[in-house]
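FYI - complex with adenosine-5'-diphosphate, inputs then prediction.
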Amino acid sequence: MSDTNTQRLEFKSELRQVLNIITHSLYSHKEVFLRELISNASDAIDKIRFNSLGNDALLEDNKDWKIKLAADKDAGTLTISDNGIGMSREGTIENLGTIAKSGTKDFLESLKSADAQARPELIGQFGVGFYSAFMVADTVTVITRTAGNALDGVRWISDGQGEFSIEAVEKPSRGTDVILHLKTEEKEFLEEWRLRQMVKQFSDFIEHPVVMDVSREDADKKKTIVEETLNSRKAIWLRSKTEVTPEEYNAFYKQISNDFNDPAKVIHYTGEGTTEFKVLLFIPSHKSFELQFGEAKVGPRLYIRRVLVMDHCEALLPPYLRFVKGVVDCSDLPLNVSREMLQQNPLLEKIQKNLVKSVFKALEELRTASYDAYLTFYKELGSILKEGLSRDWTNREQIADLLLFESINTDPGTFTTLKHYTDAMPAEQKEIYYLTGEQRTQMEHAPVLEIFREKKWNVLLMTDPIDEFILPSLSEYKGKQLKAADKGEFNEPPDESAKRPELQKKMQPLFDALKKYVADLKDIRISTRLKESAACLVSEEGGVGANMERILQKLGQADGTTIGQRILELNPEHPVVLSLYSIFEKDSSDPRIEQFGRLLYDQALIAEGSKLPDPLGFAKRMNDLLVKNAV
Ligand code: ADP
């Protein structure tokens, strides 16, 4: 081939950084490179197999599907070949050099801030794919060709630094050879035993044969070379549950999920009814790269009689279960229709219902039988699961049972469930109380909780930002209403509430005067929830609370006006409120009324964790008081 064909191109800058990390800081789990390359080869075979349905010409009579490993000790190379779909010149440039997967930028950012120990895990989640070849090779050559003309082959070479070169070559057979020029210290990957072991460990269940030429001695001690298949090829989801070891499940999960960690739970069964389908799903223990940074795809892989039809079949799982990975293999679906048509097949809806049920059952089992594992899962993925509360009305109760919350009656870091909460409710308590906020430490001391502490009623502390958004859908649990501890009025028992209107009436002129000074309030009233503090802020029932206001501010969607809709509650028994009232009674134009009133409002804002609108004014009022006190 003439040199005019050769192009030197630069890796996209984000990819360069990823490559740099792979070559210089990823020392553990190096052997995953083989898993990744075999997996790519297997995907490539699945693709041509699917695309050639009804179009035999694409096959070029080359459909003895296989992935071949060839170790050349003299040259120091390991080659992984497949007769899959291959890549065109443009495809090669795009796939192996210029397109970094979505989310890479955010991933790199978080990698910088992560501590050294967490890094390999993060990189693992990123899913290094093809580029993992550079963990063990100092140069990688890819020779590839799509179905068509033997002269249309492409050779891609790179040392994984900044650039790669690409040129046209002749390639007799369709498919891809990935040739790894192994680093001197990685020559163990040329050993037959090592390759066998790695294939067995990571790629045993790959449907296509992974083969290698091995030398065999026959009875007369004559050596012959035979092609041996290294993997057992049994699609793991078709095997019976009792035959599959936990290690095999874990290895398969890692293969399909790009996760270094074992899954939290395996779901493996045969669905029956109008149709038979095999299900192998996994509930991860951690948030995957895609969920954290990239575009998370919804749904498991769909196979039809062992042919991979879709990497993510959205019709099979709702978006709020997008963390579930796995495989569904159904024999009663048509193979020769487009993916779009297939997604509308009514059978899929039935299977979806069945899968959702099985996921809930598995989560419930995990929660009851392996609580620690459930907690790890919940902390990472619970906020995604919660989305289901507003999206899946039929399973709302099931999701509600899976929720965990801290509460004022549980120690920090320990959780309660709605069931536990309601079981422990005293008879006089009618509603489930909660408080939303950012941090337990701050929320615990909120003045609005004083009445609950006194009554020993529990209050759920909701600290996940999504809680604010799902609460409207979770308005009740088993017939008990959920009620914000800082909204609306706290309904006292009748004997206590009897004296309130009278007090309110008495103090109303003071409140009216205060409203002039703290104009951005909806109302000022006597509090029924304060026991120790002088003041607190609450919202109207159904109004925007302080936490929601802060969230909206962060999202750039609040203009600060909602805070103005708050209600200032004053404790009529508190000495400050009492002395303020007596100052007012003596002289309603005393300047201390404004000073006290504003300070009470500021205090209430600070106590709920909100920002003071006028911090300098607050400091000045405080200082004036201190000075007066000092003389
Ligand atoms: P991923 O496999 O997660 O998409 P990779 O970095 O491993 O990411 O591969 C990037 C892309 O390169 C693949 O999506 C595929 O399109 C292409 N590719 C890699 N290996 C092969 C192969 N053996 N045959 C055909 N295409 C391949």
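The longest strand covers residues 137-145. The chain has a mean pLDDT of 89.
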